[in-house]
Amino acid sequence: MMNLERAQAPVAFLPDWLSLHAERRPGRVAIATEERSVTYAELHRAAKATAARLFALGVRPGQRVGVICHQGLMHALCLHALITLRAVMVPLNWRLSPAELAYQVEDCGADFVLCDEAAAPFAEQVASAAARRVPTIVVPREAWEGEGAIEGQPMREAAGDVSLTAVHAIVYTSGTTGRPKGAMITYQNHWYSAMASALQFGLDPEERWLVPMPLFHVGGMGVLMRSLIYGTTAVVHDRFDAEKVDCALASGEITLVSLVPTMLARLLKLRREPYPPQLRAILLGGAGCPRPVLERALELGLPVAQSYGLTETNTQVATIDLAHALRKMGSSGRPLANVRIAVQGPDGPTTAPGVEGEILVQGPTVFAGYYNRKEETERALAGGWLHTGDIGRLDEEGFLYVLDRRQDLIVSGGENIYPAEIESQLLALPGVMDAGVVGKPDDEWGQVPVAFVVMEAGTVLTDERSRAFREELRSRLAHYKVPVAFYQVDALPRTASGKLMRYEMRKWVMQG
Amino acid sequence: MMNLERAQAPVAFLPDWLSLHAERRPGRVAIATEERSVTYAELHRAAKATAARLFALGVRPGQRVGVICHQGLMHALCLHALITLRAVMVPLNWRLSPAELAYQVEDCGADFVLCDEAAAPFAEQVASAAARRVPTIVVPREAWEGEGAIEGQPMREAAGDVSLTAVHAIVYTSGTTGRPKGAMITYQNHWYSAMASALQFGLDPEERWLVPMPLFHVGGMGVLMRSLIYGTTAVVHDRFDAEKVDCALASGEITLVSLVPTMLARLLKLRREPYPPQLRAILLGGAGCPRPVLERALELGLPVAQSYGLTETNTQVATIDLAHALRKMGSSGRPLANVRIAVQGPDGPTTAPGVEGEILVQGPTVFAGYYNRKEETERALAGGWLHTGDIGRLDEEGFLYVLDRRQDLIVSGGENIYPAEIESQLLALPGVMDAGVVGKPDDEWGQVPVAFVVMEAGTVLTDERSRAFREELRSRLAHYKVPVAFYQVDALPRTASGKLMRYEMRKWVMQG
């Protein structure tokens, strides 16, 4: 008798979506921005022309290529040109400092950095800051016009189907240790994210998904990729403007929107009535939504859907149905299709209700590992589960409650801040003996970082010194990472083994 | 440097959909019939109770289990109970004769035959006709009530996630040779069919998909499985009644419907205006739709979508968009997501326009092979392509035109009839020296079989003899397979190697 279980190999390829849609629905809008809407045919043509240009300049399949674009439309063009070339995109967060980005560029061994005209000076700074000089390529706006950006250069066609397990992008995440690591996101991750989302929210063949979030994080990239897979429209706002987003949602032309809770809070200041029914869901990611914000949104009748996810799971792995939002306030919902969520219990992974422990995830949207970091990858994926570093519990109905979003992570306006990274910079400042950073609740940003420092004997942390510290840090770190306040203390709470107990410091913050 | 291509293993499991939906949307209707609607919670409970009953009677994971149900609701219950048990379902076409089904039961080594009360006498006939006596189990209607059908028997829970490549069902298809073969359909086949369909037609979270077709073919089974995967409603009509289907579609409560062209032709006799917009698509499968029927449907503004598929591809692999239906009249459309279609050209598989040859298919909905038929499986899947046996060509835009739906296949009212099978029965009749069967166009059924026979010297095929032949064949073959007419000829057209040229006989039919 045949072995029924082994009768079939799993599927290993996905189609080249862009050429598929360009052929089948050439006139449909692929990406809409305030400034311009481009159809699938236009996007395909521009991607092929840009791919030809990049190829002529030396970009090859499998190479890692950094991308820094201030304009969403140009970011999307780079993404598609790199898929066409089968090069690996490394989206770079331009809110970071040039030194921080230079580290990422070096770490992934990027061969090039692409940028749009707006980001060109900054990209140059990044490229120069890298130990190994990395060539930058400015992708001009003219790439959207004409047949090819380089005279006589033939269009470059995609290589056909793409391997399901091939790496599409490397997205940097600081992880719990504060050391940025490149998370490898595969095409399979995108495909299953798109399918899970369709199963969760349905799929309107005329979907228009608004993303006023940065495209360099998985949240923004996910909207671009899902719209691509569906052959629908990604509506991109280059920066979050509450009035513009409110206006777009009120127009009835948006069917789904991805937001971080801070953005929702700002929208609620403007909104007095529900949005039209075309808007099926407001996806909240990046951080847990403060209860008063969620309650206000539900009161207003907004279709909010709190989710849980991280870079290593390529966006959401759990989402709460609107039907349960009130009853399960504070929960991030249940796992999406094909995803398993468990908690690390005393005897291993468990879904038993009430057990508190590290949140574990299994499924097709879990990333392929950290680029060039075998050990960290093995640790993160030990035992076949992704170890998220977040603490949570499941209830008797399988709803996930995230108790501590990564042990020490500070989430500020949707950006992750890892205290260890800031602490290491603080320790380099003159007179600082020890330093600890934690988040402080903030109405506008969700959280903001504050620092506790131990100064050299006899040194006082004056206001003037604090200002100098802040200025110094601004030259080294992204603006949102610079602590909003510095407090001098005699000693920091540490365990016997010297590990910083940030939990204790958070108590100091809460006690004022 | 890491090998980026091999960084991730493809996904290997799927969730247990039924328990998932029973937990998350217990009150939603899973299956609606004229007689009764059952919710996901009810279906889950009944499936677990029935699984417990079957387990107590000896049904075990991996066993093949025949299913003969006249009532769709009972058929669906058997399907879910068998998934719960991880046994392989062998849906049996009760329009076949007991002898034909006994062959299938023997061929797949079925350990049991399940049936509903209505089909019990027939199932007994099948079981008795098998060389090795196969026990039949009647699944009672009471399985829908109470907690367990056997006193004190605990409910049987599904074994959790299911392997993507595990075989879900074995569906018999006669293939080109006329010898029925069991096509192994995997969970992966269903999953990708469901996703491809969502990408093609969108996915309404409140989908209600009407299936007035038999559930024992992949067309009907596909609707049950897709609705299961989506967590939406399958609306089952136990037999096609044009007025009832028309009424259902006109009610606005149906969002998708699967039909064979014959059914559409009958609907058109009743319909004078379009259906409400809730009906997004009328999927046509099983055979090419006659041009006048398609034209009339399009004139009326019906959202018809001609598709191409076969048992070995677990339903549709190509479907034509409504947008192209008129311009590409006669085409079955372009491949669905993840599917590749090519034509066997002189130098191998090609997508070059205009080349006529055997249609080849690749993709995740291609079946896992024929049960226990290594050689036929290897032939069917040679070179990594499914060899469909159908002849077709692609045009310059990638649209598929099926020129001959399997060389000799007769499609009558959605049922496949393989001439070779009928011919072998004809040859056993007294006085018949040679026989050939081909299809004749028929307004109602699409095609009906007619027979050309060579009689022994001096024997004339009188009307009386024809009637006797017909009666004899009715005892051996399904009713629809019995030729509607017998014509006596002096000789049949055969090649030098003796192969019957049915093409020539079809010309006789067309010339009257």
Strand order of the largest sheet of chain A: 3-2-12-11-13-14-15-16-17
**Helix/strand class of chain A:** alpha/beta
Strand count, sense and barrel status of the largest sheet of chain A are: 9 strands, mixed
What is the count of β-strands of chain A? Answer: 27
Question: Which residues of chain A form runs of ≥5 with pLDDT under 50?
Answer: 1-6
Distance between the termini of chain A: 72 Å
**Amount of beta strand of chain A:** 25-35%
According to CATH, the homologous superfamily of the domain at 411-510 in chain A is: ANL, C-terminal domain
Total helices of chain A: the number is 14
**Fraction in helix of chain A:** 25-40%
CATH class type of the domain at 411-510 in chain A: Alpha Beta
CATH topology of the domain at 411-510 in chain A: GMP Synthetase, Chain A, domain 3
- Judging by the overall fold, what is the CATH architecture of the domain at 411-510 in chain A? 2-Layer Sandwich
- Multimeric state of these chains? homodimer
Explain what the structure shows.
The structure is a homodimer. With about 500 residues, chain A is α/β, with parallel strands linked by helices. The first copy, chain A, has a domain at about 410-510: 2-Layer Sandwich (GMP Synthetase, Chain A, domain 3), CATH 3.30.300.30. Chain A is built from 14 helices and 27 strands. In chain A, the strands form 7 sheets. Chain A has a 9-stranded mixed β-sheet, with helices on both faces. A 5-stranded antiparallel β-sheet of chain A has the order 19-18-20-21-22, with no helix packed on it. A 4-stranded parallel β-sheet of chain A has the order 5-4-6-7, sandwiched between helices. In chain A, helix 13 links the parallel strand 26 (about 445-455) and strand 27 (about 485-490). In chain A, helix 1 packs across helix 2. Chain A is globular. The first copy, chain A, starts with 12 loop residues before the first strand and ends with a helix. Mean pLDDT of chain A is about 90; it is low at about 1-5. Chains A, B: InterPro entries: AMP-bd_C, AMP-bd_C_sf, AMP-binding_CS, AMP-dep_synth/lig_dom, ANL_N_sf, ATP-dep_AMP-bd_enzyme, MenE. Chains A, B: Pathway: Quinol/quinone metabolism; menaquinone biosynthesis; Quinol/quinone metabolism; 1,4-dihydroxy-2-naphthoate biosynthesis; 1,4-dihydroxy-2-naphthoate from chorismate: step 5/7. Chains A, B: It catalyses: 2-succinylbenzoate + ATP + CoA = 2-succinylbenzoyl-CoA + AMP + diphosphate. Chains A, B: Its EC number is 6.2.1.26. Chains A, B: Keywords: ATP-binding, Ligase, Menaquinone biosynthesis, Nucleotide-binding.
